[in-house]
Specification:
- The chain is an alpha+beta fold.
- The chain is about 65% helix and about 10% strand.
- The strands form five sheets. It has a seven-stranded mixed sheet, covered by helices on one side. Strands 8-18-19-3-20 form a five-stranded parallel sheet, with helices on both faces.
- Keywords: Coiled coil.
- Pfam families: AAA_15.
- This is Putative GTP-binding protein.
- It comes from Reinekea blandensis MED297.
Length: about 900
């Protein structure tokens, strides 16, 4: 396919018609800067083929701001050595005309004929989309899209398979695809894309599983029903046997016999326990009696002990009484010492208080004197500060006026120096009696005057001479001097001084006074940091405190100025007090000890007298004999009880009450258990009879028959559909495998074309493609295999263009029309790669027409074709014709 002419009108920036004629069969290069119309031309060509002429989605083709424009495109092309003509207008007066070698088509019929010829489709509604662009979408590359190859191949896959069907065979042909599609459709009725049961087949399988489960459940119910009938017969047989024998009655009779034996054994145990308690009382009486007899023996011993204790108490009382005179004297001495120490401590404290008051008085007096001195100095400083403040106020100098005066004076001096430098000189040497005046001023002797203005010299007896200095500069300097002098006089007047020296002297005096004033204020803050009034108030407070101290000192006795050791006096008082407390404690302890000794002596004497009289009485002897006889009788009773208790223990051991209790429990529980089993068996029989009657009324057998029929039908349906699904999936796999094998046959010529271009860019490299003819991985010499998406951006661009050229060669061989349009392709390729890609493009242009648009003309100067400058083309009044 070869475009021979392209005309556009009212398309974006091309408000006027633009025509490209006599396009070359191979390479056609169009260059221009950004916004020169390259992409507009590409969009116009794409819209002529891809967009419906009635579509309203191409408003972006209208020139900006011109909603009444009707974008139109006219394309003339050759196919199989015959001429075709496409004319299309959008939005306004819409039309589409296609002139073929044999007929003229209009409207949608013309659009469908073009789509069939080139291998693309149209969108159902709205603007055309990438998935509709087919083969042109693969070969016509928009700006910045050359590296994107996967999706364009997917969108062109159906058309590629269709136009190349004669190279594949039946399965890969349209009829073969239809067969596969039909088998896939039938398979999808039962299976998912991965060959697993879909929702419908899963429902059939689930229905079969449910039917089988229901049948199994009913079969379980029937088996359970039969088992329950057998269980009912067994329970009824056991009930008849136990109702006749009633074995629990015999067990309860044995338990009653064991209870009688246990009751008799319990009575023996009670008797034994009673006799044990009685024997315990007898044993206790024996112990008391023995203790009583032992008491008689202990009384004799206690009598001797009491006699000894009485003698010891008398000796202790006498020893204690002998210490009384010494302790009394010690107590009196300690009391006197404590009283003397107390008086000395009181005198020491009073003397110390007097000394402290005197010291405080001296300190307050010194502070008062110090404050008085400070106050005197502060008051003098305050007076000096007031005087200096007045002086400061009188010596205030306007700093701005002083600065102006200084500047004026310096300027005036400079001007005077300049005048003197330029002025005429009047030198004179007068006799002693000469009477000469210069400008009224008398002069004498020798001298010189600078003449900067008109000057008159009066000579007595001779007349006058006038001098007029020459030069415009001198006059100008004189005027400037007069102006500056006026400014100086004004500043002197403002400062109320006669000269600059006086003004500077006043300023210096003002600074001196200010510094002195600040120094006096600093000194005043040292003496009175809080002010004079606060200093006077503090001095008054000290005067008041001094008066209070004088009053306190007047009430105290006068003492000599000597050091008073109050701490020592207090310590001696404390020691005397401690000594008195110890002596008093010793005296109190003696009094207590003497009282106790007298009490013990009296008590010991009374106890000895009482025991002596008690032991020598006849009643005491008779009581002792009676107690001895009671002990003999009690020992005889204890032996009798021991014999009786042993006999009862022998009977109890033979009866074994614990074992009897276990027998009663065992026999009673056995009887209760057997009787409970009989009652539970009766209840089970009642429940089984009721349940079996209910199950029999539900028609369990009929349900089982229905379930068996339903399960059989569901299983047959499942087996049928599973076999059909298995067969369809097997057939589909066979068909897909056949198509895959035949598709691989197509990959061979495609691989041939890919390798043709690859060896120009990467010698020894190989680019693999998948079953859908999409490029997958690039294998370069001495490098790892790499996916297309992992390559650099520039390499992706280069591979994208090479793949498109290979597809174009494949289509060319199949006799299909090809046209390659590249808008700003290969912008990310380096110089070396770009040179290789130029060779590839030049080679491809020997088989295909290539329209190349670029904003980098310098990159394509060695492409072998003349470039068309669109910027210059737009400036021409008529269409450009390519010769």
């Amino acid at each position: 396919m070869k475009l021979t002419r392209v005309s556009i009108d009212s398309v974006r920036q091309f408000r006027e018609p633009l025509t490209l004629e006599n396009l070359a069969e191979g390479l056609n290069l169009f260059v221009g800067p950004n916004e020169s119309g390259k992409s507009t031309l590409v969009s116009a060509i794409r819209a002529a083929f891809f967009e419906r002429y009635k579509s309203n989605s191409v408003k972006d083709l209208q020139p900006w701001g011109d909603s009444s424009a009707a974008p139109s495109v006219s394309i003339a092309f050759e196919w199989q050595n015959q001429s075709w003509q496409l004319d299309k207008r959008f939005l306004k007066r819409q039309r589409c005309d296609l002139k073929t070698p044999s007929e003229t088509l209009n409207g949608e019929e013309a659009e469908e004929r073009l789509a069939e010829l080139l291998g693309y489709g149209f969108s159902g509604r709205g603007a055309s989309k990438a998935e509709n662009w087919g083969i042109p979408g693969l070969l016509w590359v928009e700006q910045g899209q050359v590296q994107n190859i996967q999706e364009p191949v997917d969108h062109a896959s159906t058309h590629l398979q269709s136009v190349l069907s004669n190279q594949l065979g039946d399965v890969a042909s349209t009829q073969g695809d239809a067969l596969i599609d039909r088998i896939e459709a039938q398979s999808k009725e039962l299976l998912t894309a991965t060959g697993q049961p879909n929702k419908f087949l899963k429902g059939i399988i689930q229905a079969d599983d449910d039917a089988q489960a229901k049948l199994s459940a009913l079969q379980d119910d029937v088996r359970q029903y039969n088992d329950q009938v057998d269980e009912l017969g067994r329970l009824q047989s056991q009930q008849q046997e136990q109702d006749h024998n009633q074995p629990w009655n015999a067990l309860r009779k044995q338990a009653d016999q064991a209870r009688g034996q246990l009751q008799e054994a319990r009575q023996w145990q009670q008797q034994q326990q009673s006799q044990k308690q009685t024997r315990h009382e007898v044993t206790r009486q024996i112990e008391l009696t023995r203790e009583k007899l032992q008491g008689f023996e202990d009384q004799s011993e206690r009598l001797q002990q009491r006699a000894q204790a009485h003698q010891q108490a008398l000796q202790q009382r006498e020893s204690c009484a002998a210490r009384e005179p010494v302790l009394k004297k010690s107590l009196e001495t300690a009391k006197q010492a404590e009283q003397d120490a107390r008086q000395r401590a009181q005198q020491a404290r009073q003397s110390n208080r007097t000394l402290q008051l005197r010291q405080s008085h001296q300190q307050v007096q010194a502070q008062c004197q110090d404050l008085t001195d400070k106050l005197t100095k502060a008051e003098a400083l305050d007076a000096q500060i007031a005087e200096l403040s007045q002086q400061q106020a009188m010596l205030v100098v306007d700093a701005d006026a002083l600065t102006a005066l200084q500047q004026s004076e310096r300027k005036r001096e400079q001007l005077i120096l300049q005048q003197e430098a330029l002025a005429s000189r009047l030198s004179f040497n007068l006799q002693e009696n000469a009477n000469v005046r210069v400008n009224g001023d008398a002069v004498s002797g020798q001298g010189e005057r600078a003449l900067v203005a008109r000057t008159t010299v009066d000579i007595e007896g001779v007349g006058s001479i006038s001098f007029e200095p020459g030069g415009s500069d001198l006059a100008e300097l004189q005027r400037q001097t007069e102006n500056v002098t006026a400014k100086r006089d004004d500043a002197l007047q403002r400062l109320s001084v006669a000269s600059l020296d006086e003004a500077e002297q006043n300023a210096e005096q003002h600074r001196s006074v200010t510094q002195a004033l600040e120094a006096k204020r600093t000194e005043l803050r040292f003496f009175a940091p809080k002010g004079l009034e606060e200093l006077r108030r503090e001095r008054q407070q000290l005067h008041d405190q001094q008066a209070q101290l004088n009053e306190q000192l007047s009430t105290l006795p006068d003492i000599a100025e000597a050091e008073v050791d109050v701490d020592r006096a207090e310590r001696l008082l404390e020691e005397a007090g401690d000594a008195l407390k110890q002596v008093e404690a010793d005296w109190n302890a003696y009094q207590l000890e003497l009282a106790q000794a007298q009490h013990h002596a009296s008590a010991a004497e009374q106890e000895w007298q009482r025991l002596s009289e008690q032991l020598s009485s006849p009643e005491q002897q008779a009581l002792k004999e009676q107690t001895q006889q009671e002990l003999i009788d009690l020992q005889a009773r204890d032996q009798s009880f021991q014999n009786a208790i042993a006999a009862l223990q022998e009977k109890i051991d033979n009866a074994n009450p614990d074992l009897l209790e276990q027998d009663i429990q065992r026999l009673t529980q056995s009887a209760d258990s057997q009787e409970a089993d009989a009652r539970e068996r009766t209840r089970q029989i009642d429940r089984l009879q009721t349940l079996l009657e209910q199950v029999g009324a539900t028609g369990l057998g009929e349900k089982l028959d229905d379930a068996q029929r339903a399960a059989t039908q569901a299983q047959q349906r499942r087996v049928e559909l599973e076999r059909r699904a298995e067969a369809l999936w097997l057939l589909l796999e066979q068909l897909r495998s056949a198509r895959h094998r035949l598709t691989q046959k197509l990959q061979a010529p495609l691989q041939k074309h890919l390798n043709h271009y690859l060896r120009l860019l990467f010698p020894g490299a190989e680019l693999t493609v998948d079953d859908q003819l999409r490029p997958e991985q690039l294998q370069r010499k001495d490098q790892d295999r790499a996916d297309m998406t992992t390559l650099s951006y520039g390499a992706q661009e280069q591979m994208g263009l090479i793949c498109r050229l290979a597809y174009a060669d494949l289509l060319k061989e199949a006799g299909r029309p090809t046209l390659i349009i590249l808008d700003d392709a290969l912008v990310h390729s380096d110089r070396e790669r770009l040179d290789q890609m130029k060779r590839i493009l030049f080679d491809a242009a020997t088989r295909h027409q290539v329209l190349l648009f670029s904003c980098h003309p310098e990159n394509w100067r060695d492409l072998g074709v003349a470039a068309v400058d669109l910027q210059a083309l737009k400036a021409q009044p008529s269409a450009l014709r390519l010769e």
